[in-house]
Amino acid sequence: MRALKGDRNLVCVFVSTWRNKKHDVSTGTRGFTGLGRLFGLGISHRSQRISGFRLNRIQRLADRVKRVLWAGVEHGVHMSPCESCHAGCCRAFAVPVTGADVLRIEQRLQLGFGDFVCRWADPDGNIARNYAPQFHFADEPETPFVICLRHTVSEFFPNSSKCRFLLEGEPDAEHPLGVSRCGIHSCRPGACRVFPTKLNETGELAVIYDVPGQGRPSDPSPIYDLCPRPWEPEDVDSIGGIQDLVVARYEMGFFKQLAHLWNRKPREWALFPEFLRLVYKSRVLKDTQTTDEAPQTIPFPTPSENVERRVA
């Protein structure tokens, strides 16, 4: 336990120092001053040269931190099934998103809509699964689509795909499929936040549903294997988990209303991002009424030529 405590303190100091890193004006480097003091490297303000010996020390320390942060199992500390997982769920599934998810990622990461969003054809309803709405578009009117995060080709498993934001760990002897992490964990979509839970019938409790062993039954590749062990109640935050479920249910319900409106008169896919922004921009109103009566519905703007002009 003493060694573990030392590793834990090391991680805390490392993260704290990196977050408070200084900018060395004389060399144009960032972070070396604080980290140099922490590691006892004696890095000069006026020199960017680091000896091979010092680089080896940095590498050894980085490896140690990585073991604790990414894949280490702490004795006596409960770890969720995700801690040592290769993220089969982020590879096997198309992740449905709401408009709120999309705009949050756009704003926080300064990404464009097309950088991470796609429309995924869903003629059999295998993606929507009565959870996400289906949209129709004028350029492919017969095909129902679900709005999802993009997939890209895996770096280490070229014949497979993964969520565009998944950070893959390199496979090794201990973890043949690697250990992977979400690259946008703080602003990940609601569907990811609540996995693998749902609200009970009264909407008061979180229920863990059974996770299948394989995410793509038609492809037996182990890269699509799901959770390494069953989820238990202690794996779920009893406060944050409930809040995430409530918010996710509200946002998906709102998104279904939006889909119903859009599908009345579908427009081209290219117009959809601006339509989203117009709708969500109108979600906050100022109370100017003189009575206690509140608006019964959100005033959705109608997909019209105004959207087309703004996109153009």
Summary keywords:
three-stranded antiparallel β-sheet; alpha+beta; 312 residues; disordered N terminus; two-stranded antiparallel ribbon
Overview of the molecule:
With 312 residues, the protein is of the alpha+beta class. It contains ten helices and eleven strands. The chain has helices at residues 2-19, 32-39, 52-71, 89-92, 99-109, 113-116, 190-194, 240-264, 272-281, 305-311; strands at residues 23-24, 29-30, 117-121, 135-137, 140-149, 151-153, 161-163, 166-167, 181-182, 197-199, 206-208. The longest helix is centred in the last third of the chain and has 25 residues, at 240-264. Mean pLDDT is 79; it is low at 1-50 and 68-76.
What's the layout of helices and strands?
Layout: H1 2-19, E1 23-24, E2 29-30, H2 32-39, H3 52-71, H4 89-92, H5 99-109, H6 113-116, E3 117-121, E4 135-137, E5 140-149, E6 151-153, E7 161-163, E8 166-167, E9 181-182, H7 190-194, E10 197-199, E11 206-208, H8 240-264, H9 272-281, H10 305-311
Helix pairs in contact: 1-3
Major β-sheet annotation:
3 strands, antiparallel
Q: Share of helix among residues?
A: 25-40%
Q: How many alpha or pi helices? A: 10
- Based on secondary structure, the structural category is alpha+beta
| Shape annotation | globular
Low-confidence stretches: 1-50, 68-76
DSSP strand tally: 11
Radius of gyration: 24 Å
Give the CA-CA distance, first to last residue: 62 Å
Percentage beta strand: 5-15%
Secondary-structure element order, as H and E?
HEEHHHHHEEEEEEEHEEHHH
Mean pLDDT: 79
Which sequence of strands runs across the widest sheet? 3-5-4
